[in-house]
Amino acid sequence: MERAHILVVEDTPSTASLISHVLKEKNLGVKLVSSLKNARSEFLKTIFDLLILDRGLPDGEGLDFVKEIRSSTHAPAIPILILTAQNETPERVAGLNQGADDYLGKPFNTQELSARVDSLLRRAGYKIDVMEIRCANIHLDFAARKASVSGKDISLSEKEFDLLWFLAEQKNKALSRELILQKVWGYDEELSLTTKVVDVTVSHLKEKLGKAADKISPVRGIGYRFED
Length: 228
Prior knowledge:
This protein is α/β, with parallel strands linked by helices and 228 residues long. It is built from eight helices and 14 strands.
């Protein structure tokens, strides 16, 4: 199953970085924004699988965004986890009444955050425990961020590993350059990149894979396919 992607709306850089770290360790795609304006923009552009939302944002109240989502026609059923320092009982009740699915107060324990994310994604039908892929002689360990070919470790950059993981996860499917760019780059960086970066990264990746490079085949006019 394709990995889930999460929109995180948090204006404190250290907290946003911590949340991102927890989610990426679980092989989840992450898009970080720090305002309601940017959250609305991203929400309309992309179908996310979970929203983690701070309440006290620079340009408004997070619960107003929850109300907008629940009354919209664009992914109104998306699971929503409120993450905020406003964690007294009346605040929690208000958040749940507005349509949030769960509520976690700050400061939070990362293990509890991880467990609540797992619970919400399971409800949405996602399997979140796939951390290892074996395709022929290629072995990928997501938790350790390690890749090996025929038992020999190969050194990959962060994006090379993410690209290989996505291709292997979607094995035998023709994947467009645009889709690869969105899934591997689009949730971490601004989409000012062109699809050329996909071709360049595939080229570098194939060099490092050696004889296993033939597992990644070009699909004329579309992109690439991982053959298994």
